[in-house]
Structure formats: structure tokens, C-alpha cells
Design a protein that fits this description.
By secondary structure, this protein is α/β, with parallel strands linked by helices. It is built from 18 helices and 24 strands. Strands 3-1-7-8-9-10-11 form a 7-stranded mixed beta sheet, sandwiched between helices.
Length: 531
């Protein structure tokens, strides 16, 4: 039996090319490789963006490709990955008996459903199986699609293995497979959410070209040392999967394999990488000395870290750290049922003095959050040698907040993404959220200019920086924001400066809060005063 595992393309206003490694499919392949012929088709990574029909015309006024500004956001809605025809040709060439489809995000369910339809056109007898977070949470919705034969709920290695064995034998028995959902007589039979007893499976990385996945010039891979999260933050959508650690022996075996393949960067994708500090330190010792760059772009848990562990992280290969801050407000954390990041704030002075580069990620537009709280967070982060990383809130399926905010699946799923600036909080209409994102772009450009301009004492000194002066329009745009407290851009079609959509009162409040305060760079200890 031939099995083809597929990562679909995505359609959105942006993609993150350094976070597309299909680790889940590689884990499935690692489990089933001894009982069938398995291959992986990554339809997302390494393809030029192309322009599909824009599903969000209401955002045309915000995201434009005719405006030039150093504080730009997204410019156009794009398809990141293969075309339908290319996918159809690839499936026909492989000639699979079973097509397994990853559907990890509700926002991109349509792209996953497209794969099922293409597979059925390529061969009506092809069995289609869909797994991931979206089918786990909404199996009935997925099974309503005539092109989907089976749904795997929860962790899929064992259910997929048992399904392949059942199909090979021809004796049926699918109803006895835990975690499997399917249709009988046109009606869905929904199985339970499967939790793996053994999470020590080694992903089949040999099925993925090493050279296709890179961070900078280094081949990279994802790695999981644990699964699940013990917490239940109100904004977080996740299946009810408990926290479990892998065996250290299996992790060491996997790291040896990664090293032997010539992969020089590892991104840990654990939800709670450093929850157990003793365990985490053992993992660091396994990687230390191999010359592998380490990152944890899914975020580090600041509550457990200490200076000794951070030193070991640096020695093992970490140079850039991502932390989940959410907000600097105690009230916001209480409402969201999340512990206040007190320990992260305690070690921040040490981090600033170290040679780490630090990113602090926070959320804009949470229910119950106020614009003033966001301004406080921005002011705090501007005064630290930290790069602020904004995330626009959206209702995440599976989160406690989701059901109360969204009417029904047909409406809510396409809007479960940051780029649409979902108006979940009346204090954050799109204009306000868009203005915050523009201010964040200003802050990050400012920090970069501070790094590049030693000796500058005030923000206005930076308008003469070579990078600003290199572009004939950037200087005027920069000065308009500093002096007039408004965002302008250069319209390349009309050849004039135009005012962008913005909340002028919010901009004024932000600059009033920053008056006289110190702003630090990101990579250096340079600083200027906001005047």
C-alpha cells in the first residue's frame, strides 16, 4: 500500500517560511514506514507567492501594494505554495492508495479540503484521511465534506498505523480504532481524541530534503522533547492533550540523527519546552558542542528560568530567545487565567546585559484588554534592549473564549487568523488595531536605527540615518510621524504622499506616554531620548 502525506499550501497576507517544517507528517511517516510505502508532499515550502482571489476585500483599505513606507505591514493576499494543478499532477505521479492531509489551523481548513478534492479527482478510489487540530476539534464539520473519508482526532501516529493495517487487510474493523472518525450510511461516527502512550517515535526526516528547509543559510528542523501543556489560558486553543516528556534516550537518538544529516539548526516546538528545568538541562547537554544553532520560536516559559539555565542555553547554542509576555498588566493576566510573568521581568536586567537577543511577544486586542494597557506594554518594551513581537488576537478554536465570540463555524473559521484584525473587543476596531501595528513597526525600525547610529542622543537625530536618507520618501514619512503625530505613505500610482488609516488620538496618547523616556536598541546598548 502506498501512502502520501500532504502539507497543504496556505492563503493569507503573510507566511512565515522558517516555520513550515512538516514535523507532524514526519512523525506519522516514522510510525508507518515499516508497514507501507510512505512519502511526504510539502505543498507549502519553497514556492513563490502567487495572487489568488482575495477572500477579505474589507481589508483592501488597510493592506495595499501601492503605498511605500518604512513602517509597512502586509501588502497583498497571496497563496503560499503549489497551485491546484501542480498538486494534482504530483498526486497523480505518486499514485497513492491513501492520502493523509494535515489540517492544523482552522483558518486554512479550505486549503486542506482542497487537497482532499484534488485527491479524489486524481483517483476516486483514493482513501483520504485528515488529521490535525481542526479535525480534532470539529470532526463532524470535516466529515460533512464528501471528499474526506476518515478523520483522526488527537495524536495520529497509532490511529493512522492501525487504519493502514486495517485497509491493507481488507477485513474492516475501523470502528475499533481509537481516535478514528468516519461516515456510515451518510452519518458521522465520531471517535474519541487519541492520546499516544508512546511519544518516542523518531520522525522520518529522510523523506524531507534537507536543503529545502533553512533558517538563513543553515538547514533546520523542528524538534519536540515534550507534548502538551498543563495550563488553560483563556485565549489559547488546543486539544485536551496532557503534558508529557519524551525519554531522554529517544531525544538523544534523534539529535544524533539530525546531526548526522547535516542539519545545523534546531527549533524546539514544544508548548512547554522548559517547564521541567532538570529535564531541559539534560536536553541542552545532548546538543552542546555539536555546533547546532538552537531556537524556541514557539516561546519560552519565563517562570522557570534562572541565570544558570540561561548560561547553559547559551553554551548549548541559543543566541536568540523568544518569550511570551502577553501584557505587562496584572489585570489582563488574571482575566486570561494566566500567571503573571514575574520571573521573566526579574531576569530581564540580566538578559539585557547578556549577549542574548531577546524578543518579547504580546497580544493586541484581547477581550477585556484596553488600549492604555497596550501603550503601557509598548512603553515598557521600548525602554528595554528587547524586540517587541506583536500578535493580533483572534478567537482560537478550542479556547474558552472561542464559543462566546463566534456565531458558527461557517462564519468563524476563515477569521481565525491575526491578519484579519478580528474585532473581538469593541475597544479595538480595525483602525485601532492597525494603528498599533503601525506603531510597532515604528518601534522596531527605531530600535534598528538606534543600533546603526551610535552617538545619536534624540529620536530626531535618527531621521538623518543613512538608511532613512537612502530612500527619497522615508525622511518625510519619518518626520511626519515624529512632528505631526500621523502616519503618511507615498502613493506610487499617484506619485503623492497620502495619509494612512489611523487612530490619531491613539498616536497622540502613545507619544505623550513616551515623552522624555529612554529608548534602547535591540542588538546594541545604544539609546536615545524621546523628545
Amino acid at each position: 500500500m502506498k501512502v502520501l502525506l500532504v502539507q497543504p499550501p496556505v492563503e493569507d497576507f503573510y507566511d512565515t517560511p522558517i516555520r513550515t517544517y512538516p514535523l507532524g507528517l514526519a512523525c506519522i511517516a516514522g510510525k508507518i514506514k515499516d508497514v507501507c510505502d510512505v512519502s511526504i508532499l510539502d505543498c507549502r515550502t519553497g514556492y513563490k507567492a502567487r495572487a489568488p482571489k482575495n477572500d477579505f476585500p474589507e481589508l483592501d483599505a488597510f493592506y495595499r501594494d501601492d503605498r511605500r513606507t518604512p513602517f509597512s505591514l502586509f501588502s497583498r493576499y497571496s497563496r503560499y505554495g503549489m497551485s491546484e494543478k501542480e498538486i494534482g499532477d504530483a498526486i497523480e505521479k505518486e499514485g497513492p492508495d491513501v492520502v493523509g492531509i494535515s489540517s492544523c489551523f482552522a483558518a486554512y481548513y479550505r486549503e486542506a479540503a482542497e487537497i482532499a478534492a484534488i485527491a479524489k479527482r486524481a483517483g476516486p478510489r483514493i482513501i483520504t484521511v485528515m488529521g490535525g487540530t481542526h479535525p480534532t476539534l470539529f470532526p463532524g464539520h470535516v466529515l460533512d465534506d464528501v471528499n474526506v473519508d476518515y478523520v483522526v482526532r488527537g495524536e495520529g501516529e497509532t490511529p493512522f498505523l492501525e487504519l493502514v493495517r486495517s485497509l491493507q487487510s481488507g477485513r474492516g474493523g475501523q470502528s475499533r480504532i481509537g481516535g478514528l472518525s468516519f461516515k456510515r450510511n451518510g452519518r458521522p461516527r465520531v471517535g474519541s481524541i487519541h492520546i499516544e502512550d508512546d511519544i518516542d517515535v523518531i520522525p522520518a526526516r529522510h523523506l524531507l530534503p534537507v536543503e529545502k528547509y533553512r533558517i538563513g543559510r543553515k538547514p533546520y528542523t523542528f524538534l519536540l522533547t515534550s507534548r502538551g501543556c498543563p495550563f488553560s489560558c483563556s485565549f489559547c486553543g488546543k486539544p485536551p492533550v496532557p503534558y508529557r516528556r519524551r525519554s531522554l534516550k529517544s531525544i538523544e537518538r534523534e539529535v544524533d540523527e539530525i546531526d548526522g544529516m547535516g542539519i545545523r539548526a534546531i527549533d524546539f516546538e514544544d508548548d512547554m519546552l522548559n517547564l521541567d528545568i532538570a529535564f531541559f538541562r539534560n536536553v541542552l547537554e545532548m546538543v552542546k558542542g555539536r555546533g547546532i544553532t538552537l531556537s524556541a520560536m514557539n516561546g519560552l516559559y519565563g517562570q522557570t528560568l534562572d541565570i544558570d539555565t540561561l548560561t547553559k542555553m547559551r553554551d548549548a547554542g541559543f543566541s536568540r530567545l523568544n518569550f511570551s509576555l502577553v501584557d505587562t498588566s496584572h489585570a489582563v493576566h488574571a482575566v486570561q487565567r494566566r500567571a503573571y510573568p514575574a520571573n521573566f521581568l526579574r531576569i530581564l536586567d540580566w538578559l539585557e546585559a547578556s549577549d542574548f537577543l531577546v524578543e518579547a511577544h504580546f497580544i493586541i486586542g484581547l477581550p477585556g484588554q484596553s488600549p492604555a494597557e497596550i501603550i503601557d506594554t509598548l512603553v515598557f518594551l521600548m525602554g528595554k534592549r528587547v524586540l517587541p513581537g506583536p500578535s493580533i488576537y483572534y478567537p482560537a478554536p478550542g479556547s474558552p473564549l472561542f464559543d462566546g465570540l463566534c456565531g458558527g463555524p461557517a462564519f468563524s473559521f476563515p477569521y481565525c487568523r491575526s491578519s484579519v484584525m478580528f474585532e473581538a473587543n469593541p475597544a479595538f476596531p480595525r483602525k485601532t488595531t492597525f494603528t498599533f501595528m503601525k506603531l510597532l513597526r515604528f518601534i522596531n525600525v527605531l530600535k534598528s536605527l538606534i543600533d546603526d547610529t551610535p552617538g545619536a542622543s534624540g529620536v530626531h537625530d535618527l531621521s538623518g540615518a543613512p538608511r532613512i536618507q537612502k530612500d527619497p520618501h522615508s525622511g518625510a514619512i519619518f518626520e511626519a510621524l515624529l512632528s505631526e503625530k500621523r502616519f503618511i505613505a507615498f502613493d506610487v500610482r499617484e506619485n503623492i504622499f497620502v495619509e494612512e488609516i489611523q487612530d490619531r488620538e491613539l498616536i497622540a496618547a502613545f507619544f505623550a506616554s513616551m515623552q522624555g523616556r529612554t529608548i534602547k536598541g535591540f542588538k546594541t546598548h545604544n539609546r536615545v531620548i524621546m523628545s
